[in-house]
Amino acid sequence: MQDLSLQLKRSLDSLNISVKEQQQIKLLKLLQQLLKWNKAYNLTAITDENEALKLHILDSLAVAPFIEQDELIDVGTGPGFPGLPLAILLPNKRFTLLDSNSKKIRFILQIKHELGLDNVEAVHARVEDFSSKQFPAVISRAFASIEDMVELTRHLLAPGGCWLAMKAQFQNEEVDYPRLAVKEVANHAIEIPGLNAQRCLIEIRPS
């Protein structure tokens, strides 16, 4: 775990992300618990701790510099990504983590309790069935297409809000923005330390 702690610190330094010691401890605890629960509940296909650090923790945290909103909903969060790492890093922002898989929501609730993440709410529901409130930002890395993300979550977006779609840079996706009545306002290239692949965060707003 000491090697993993050093790897996390170096990676965050390269991303120009500053964390307190207690936040780093929580991030490593999240990773440790994810891999522990995964043995029984199959939460993720990634079983190697170094790969999980890069593909779950760092991949989630890398978008933090681009998040301006005080409240977000992470749709299709799975076992809590990017929502949980972002909630640890950004304690003054509120995160609603939505998923239809009950096992994954139970994991999130346990992590919320263990790490004292008062800024996290976990919701077990299908995205099209959840409509209790609207949010300044809808974030996800789970949707197969931007069109699906926009169409299925439009009812969750507050006036003036935006979608934040985490995508692989190599996915040269054709999106019919005029049909969706939205526009792409930013495309942030992101490099994950130790990962030989590019990522991007696409910001979309109603047109």
Describe this structure in words.
This protein has one domain: Rossmann fold, CATH 3.40.50.150. A seven-stranded mixed beta sheet has the order 3-2-1-4-5-7-6, sandwiched between helices. The protein has helices at about 1-15, 20-40, 50-60, 85-90, 100-115, 145-155, 175-180; strands spanning about 70-75, 95-100, 120-125, 135-140, 155-170, 180-190, 200-205. About 40% of the residues lie in helices and about 25% in strands. Helix 2 (about 20-40) crosses helix 3 (about 50-60), helix 2 runs antiparallel to helix 4 and helix 3 (about 50-60) packs across helix 4 (about 85-90). It is α/β, with parallel strands linked by helices. Strand 4, helix 6 and strand 5 (about 155-170) form a beta-alpha-beta unit. The radius of gyration is 16 Å and the shape is globular. The chain contains seven helices and seven strands, in the order H-H-H-E-H-E-H-E-E-H-E-H-E-E.
